[in-house]
Write a structure and sequence with these properties.
By secondary structure, the chain is mainly α. The protein has 7 helices and no strands.
Length: 169
């Protein structure tokens, strides 16, 4: 990763974390809908970036979220899980485009990009809510919270992607 990419990812890390902590952590609609667009950092991390850098920054991202949310490690575990499964999700969503590393997520929303974002956010939320509740007695509650939070998070992620997308002139 070159220095401009490192700077851009560092700024993205800080901004997404600040927006999550300041704005989105205070949203709790009906007790079920909680948007977590900070996962966009893991989703938009460069495809050809260092995998160990992704895993360590994902852990740091989750750790900081755990400190602000007082959640005992569920964000860290969910972020690490997403970062670890990210190459498999890429292969599933993009196929050969991922093999040749020609994937750009901040372009026009295609079915492949949408499926990648959907699967990544669902994996993160399912892991996080399961570890937060940690009881199979509440299986349907976990699925419901995952579903509604995933839908709202995907909406926020797509809006953020289009807001930060560089204009082509």
């Amino acid at each position: 990763m070159n220095s401009s990419s490192l700077l851009y990812n560092s700024i993205r890390f800080v901004l997404l974390l600040m927006v999550q902590v300041i704005l989105f952590n205070s949203i709790n609609f009906l007790g079920y809908i909680n948007p977590y667009p900070y996962v966009l950092f893991i989703i938009l991390f460069p495809v050809n970036g260092n995998r160990y850098a992704l895993l360590s920054t994902s852990f740091l991202l989750g750790l900081i979220m755990d400190l602000f949310c007082n959640s005992g490690g569920v964000h860290s575990a969910a972020c690490i899980t997403l970062a670890y499964l990210r190459p498999s999700i890429f292969k599933f969503s993009f196929g050969l485009s991922y093999e040749y590393q020609t994937v750009k997520l901040n372009d026009v929303l295609t079915p492949e990009r949408f499926s990648f974002i959907l699967i990544a956010v669902t994996v993160h939320h399912l892991c996080m809510f399961f570890m937060e509740i940690f009881a199979l007695d509440y299986f349907w509650s976990i699925l419901f919270r995952t579903l509604v939070s995933t839908l709202f998070t995907i909406l926020m992620c797509i809006l953020i992607i289009y807001l930060i997308k560089p204009s082509k002139r």
